[in-house]
Design a protein that fits this description.
The complex is a heterodimer of chains A (334) and B (556).
Chain A: H1 2-5, H2 18-23, H3 26-44, H4 51-58, H5 62-76, H6 84-100, H7 105-129, H8 134-153, H9 167-170, E1 172-174, E2 177-178, H10 179-197, H11 199-209, H12 211-216, H13 221-247, H14 258-268, H15 280-299, H16 304-333
Antiparallel strand pairs in A: 1-2
Helix pairs in contact in A: 3-15, 5-10, 5-11, 5-13, 5-14, 5-15, 6-7, 6-8, 6-13, 7-8, 7-13, 10-11, 14-15, 14-16
Chain B: H1 9-14, H2 22-40, H3 45-57, E1 63-72, E2 75-85, E3 89-94, H4 101-108, E4 116-121, E5 124-126, H5 131-136, E6 139-142, H6 154-159, H7 173-186, H8 202-215, E7 220-224, H9 232-247, E8 251-255, H10 259-265, E9 268-273, E10 276-282, H11 288-296, E11 314-322, E12 330-335, E13 339-344, H12 350-357, E14 365-370, E15 373-375, H13 380-386, E16 388-391, H14 395-399, H15 406-411, H16 415-418, H17 426-439, H18 456-468, E17 474-478, H19 486-501, E18 505-509, H20 513-519, E19 522-527, E20 530-536, H21 542-550
Parallel strand pairs in B: 3-8, 3-9, 6-7, 7-8, 13-18, 13-19, 16-17, 17-18
Antiparallel strand pairs in B: 1-2, 1-4, 4-5, 9-10, 11-12, 11-14, 14-15, 19-20
Classes of the chains: A mainly alpha (334), B alpha/beta (556).
Chain lengths: 334, 556
């Protein structure tokens, strides 16, 4: 027997210290990129470093980033939710409709959040209840939810939101810190803690790496996934409140194409599109990078169509880059 | 034997001219059809055997292996094995798991290269350096899970890579479908060749695979446990088909654990044990008992570290467990400190039953008592909470979570214990993981390492550690040493024995007779979803186990 002449080995917990692991991570690469873009922007335009300008810049990404946090969890668990932008449209339409019925700001917030939550429940039930693939379900509900807003709105727009409602998209909590940016920071912390510090977060990683083994290990896979789709719905509702409040009006084309930008943000943040890995700090950095690039282009008067080309190129390269990065890391490890 | 490239297009393309029209084949087939196939229905078995014997004795083997040896690091898989396959004859290859059957098939199909020995095809010495060269020599294999393409039509599957072309160089669909229909007819199937393969049942897929073998003019057909996934009726269709292949002059190697089918369709037998050939001859000259003895004939049990344990009171009682399709009428008791072995053939319903005990599948009726209390288990998490855990057979799919580090794998079902109000406590996790992995003598560089970087044996230790860390009362180990190296095997066995001595109750599902006999206090044999026999340790013999599992009556 092997045991009789071999004493049990002492296996160390970790081989590398915290700093060594941090240094080799995707997030540290993102941080370098973010710094470079920041420097580039400040040289490119003398207006960039103005605190109020920077504050304005945050509106480019805060709403998308709220959804991106929840989306990161969904993608880590091996699923995807492509209906988020349509949920924004439907929630915004519902709020506009509620305004016509004379609802006040608190009631509007409730309507926005409930519609988001409801849409999340629909997705969640179809995916976990019926066991349908999320990519198909959410492409379906993407058309469905936006189609509903088109039917309700036609080619008109809802306006006339109460003045107090504008605070969510235009108000400031303190000095240059807007409500949206504050919410972004708070949600980053909440999602970071949930994903990295709780049993729930561990379950998300386990499901993303091996759903069957996770089930055998006593994880309630269906329940976890349902919760995740509920969260993306809720976050889309929240983003809808902020966006509607910022624009002051609702059109059925509101937030058109955002689902791709949100997915780009998540993947750029180092979340594997195949599920199983990724971090919230990575998504935060990716949000900052995308926001700064958009703002930098704006300062340089780059036309909108170039932005769209840039987003397309970014999406392709961020899917390729992490793979190349991992290959390079593996080579370093050997 | 998974993913063999025999279904890929290149070897088909390289495999010479397209299929001759079915009419041209009649002449080739005539001789055998006259002497065997047409007579089958009218001749009794003895006469047929006589006929067969004469046929094969004057016949040169279609393929002959001589003195084949093959070693893997630490294991001698085959040593000095010889095997001849004759045209128009079915040779049954029997042996326990690990006897070297699969290795031999892989050598025959060019996936492994033998370390020594020779292969002769029609009297010419040859080698199969690649799967392609074996296929060119006319060796084809039909597996349990046949490698075909679900989304293509039946005809496309048959002719993939060598489809008939029209004068524009495009696929001649009319001819393709007509030829496919003719081939299917010869294989004994009369379904439409234009239907999609995915719409067929497994038995009909076998027929398609056979039609494909006919289309490339295979000389040698290897059938590796072809009936394992088939129903009773489908098995009979398969028998008819084997007869037809025989009539076509194919040399057939038939691998099976089921004695009834071996005696029903085989003409010759070859028995492997521990990588050597221990017997061969005509089926007509051998009794089932002789075959069983040859298969298991060795002293077993001596190398297993089974400790003598005082068996305590009943811990788990299962009564009247049944499932609409998988198992029926399962009743037994498991006592404290006991290792209860579950033996049976692959597909006997053992894993399905065990998975119903932990709430993966739902039984249609039945009750469990744990420590005297009636228990309803609807999910694995409830099973874990009540103290019943299952170490699954498919380590890669159901056990280890590749991509997560070792310590997270170990603590996953125990998170509620290591965490505080839902928040992870990494220090507790490392402590728990260290405790159980060191008890299992895990070999790893660090606990933070991805479990996917470990060897199979060490992954299995992580999976077992994961379940033990939940502090169960009952642990079910499903094929705990399947596919792991000898050193890890010994560690797992020693640990299992130690656990039982500490008062844990163990259920061990295994298809390896030495393991079952070496480790179990009691053995339950399952066959076709039912309990087919119960044996105490002192009355265990390999023969009894094999008989019960294969359904051979004592009198035979």
């Amino acid at each position: 027997m092997a045991e009789t002449h071999l004493s049990p080995r002492n296996i160390p917990d970790r081989l590398e210290g915290r700093s060594a692991r941090l240094l080799k991570s995707w997030e540290s690469l993102l941080l370098v990129v973010a710094c470079l873009i920041f420097l580039g922007n400040s040289f490119a335009s003398p207006y960039f470093l103005d605190p109020w300008n920077l504050s304005d810049a945050t509106f480019n990404f805060t709403e998308k980033a709220m959804i991106a946090f929840a989306m990161a969890l969904v993608i880590i668990s091996g699923e995807i939710d492509l209906s988020v932008a349509s949920i924004i449209a439907l929630a915004s339409t519902a709020m506009g409709y509620a305004v016509q019925l004379g609802f006040d700001t608190p009631a509007l917030v409730v309507v926005g959040l409930s519609v988001g939550l409801l849409c999340g429940i629909v997705n969640g039930l179809l995916i976990t209840g019926l066991g349908l693939p999320s990519i198909v379900v959410t492409i379906g509900t993407m058309s469905l939810f936006r189609g509903l807003s088109f039917i309700i709105l036609g080619d008109q727009a809802f306006t006339g939101y109460p003045d107090s409602f504008s605070w969510f998209g235009q108000g400031y909590v303190w000095w240059v810190f807007s409500f949206e940016f504050t919410l972004f920071v708070a949600l980053a912390i909440v999602y970071g803690v949930v994903l990295h510090k709780t049993n729930f977060g561990r379950a998300v990683y386990a499901i993303g790496n091996n759903q069957t083994a996770a089930l055998f290990s006593g994880i309630r896979v269906g329940r976890v996934k349902f919760t995740l789709f509920l969260l993306t719905g809720l976050m889309a509702g929240l983003a809808s409140i902020c966006l509607t409040s910022r624009l002051g009006s609702t059109r059925p084309s509101i937030a058109l194409g955002w689902e791709l930008e949100v997915v780009t943000m998540v993947v750029l943040g180092g979340v594997s599109i195949l599920g199983g890995s990724g971090t919230i700090p990575g998504v935060v950095l990716a949000a900052l990078i995308m926001g700064m690039v958009t703002f930098g282009f704006g300062l340089l008067n780059v036309p909108g169509i170039v932005m769209s080309i840039f987003i397309g190129l970014l999406l392709i390269s961020v899917i390729a880059l992490p793979i190349l990065w991992r290959r390079a890391r593996r080579r370093l490890a050997h | 034997m998974i993913g063999r490239p025999h279904a890929t297009s290149e070897w088909q393309a390289a495999n010479g001219p397209p299929l001759p029209a079915s009419g041209e084949r009649v002449g080739v087939r005539g001789h055998f059809a006259d002497c065997c196939a047409l007579d089958v229905r009218h001749t009794n078995q003895a006469e047929l055997n006589l006929l067969q014997d004469q046929t094969t004795s004057r016949m040169k083997p279609a393929i002959a292996l001589e003195g084949i040896s093959k070693s893997f690091p630490g294991v001698k898989a085959l040593s000095d094995v010889s095997l001849s396959l004759y045209p128009g004859s079915v040779t049954a290859l029997v042996g326990e798991n690990g006897a070297g059957k699969s290795t031999l098939v892989k050598i025959l199909t060019g996936i492994y290269q033998p370390d020594g020995g020779s292969i002769r095809v029609a009297d010419t010495e040859t080698t199969f350096p690649t799967a392609l060269s074996a296929a060119r020599a006319g060796v084809t294999a039909i597996h349990q899970e046949t490698v075909l393409f679900d989304e293509l039509s039946v005809a496309e599957n048959i002719f993939l890579g060598h489809a008939p072309r029209n004068r524009f160089g495009l696929i001649d669909w009319k001819k393709l479908n007509a030829d496919a229909r003719a081939l299917l007819h010869r294989a004994g199937a009369d379904f439409d060749p234009t239907i999609r393969l995915r719409d067929l049942g497994i038995a009909k897929k076998h027929l398609v695979a056979i039609a494909r073998a006919l289309s490339v003019d295979a000389r040698v057909v290897i059938m590796d446990e072809p009936t394992a996934a088939l129903s009773h009726k489908e098995i009979h269709e398969l028998y008819a088909l084997v007869e037809r292949l025989k009539a076509d002059g194919k040399a057939i190697l038939f691998i099976s654990h089921k004695f009834d089918e071996i005696f029903r369709i085989a003409d010759r037998y070859t028995v492997f044990r521990d990588g050597t050939m221990v017997g061969e001859g005509m089926i007509a000259d051998v009794a089932q008992d002789d075959l069983v003895r040859m298969m298991v004939g060795r002293a077993v049990g001596s190398v297993y570290p089974k400790k003598d344990v005082v068996i305590g009171e009943p811990v788990l009682t299962v009564s009247g467990y049944r499932h609409p399709t998988e198992f029926e009428d399962i009743n037994f008791e498991l006592r404290r400190g006991e290792i209860l072995g579950f033996y049976g053939l692959v597909g006997a319903g053992r894993s399905e039953f065990m998975q119903s005990l932990i709430g993966i599948t739902r039984p249609s009726a039945g009750a469990i008592r744990l420590d005297g209390e009636i228990l309803v288990i609807r999910s694995p998490s409830e099973a874990i909470r009540s103290g019943i855990v299952y170490v699954p057979e498919e380590r890669g799919r159901q056990g280890a979570i590749i991509g997560l580090p070792i310590f997270q794998n170990v603590t996953l079902p125990s998170l509620s214990r290591t965490s505080r109000s839902g928040f992870l406590k990494l220090a507790n996790e490392f402590a728990l993981a260290r405790e159980y992995t060191s008890r299992l003598d895990l070999r790893a560089a660090s606990l933070d390492q991805d479990v996917g970087t470990l060897s199979g044996g060490n992954q299995q230790k992580v999976v077992i550690a994961k379940w033990l860390a939940t502090k169960p009362k009952v642990i079910i180990l499903d094929e705990p040493t399947k596919g792991i190296d000898i050193g890890s095997k010994a560690a797992v066995h020693a640990f299992m024995s130690e656990l039982a001595a500490q008062g844990l109750s163990v259920i061990m599902v295994s298809s390896e007779i030495p393991e079952i006999m070496g480790m179990s206090d009691r053995v339950i044999v399952m066959r076709e979803g039912r309990i087919a026999g119960r044996f105490e340790r002192n009355e265990l013999t390999a023969e009894k186990l094999v008989r019960a599992a294969a359904g051979i009556t004592e009198a035979a």
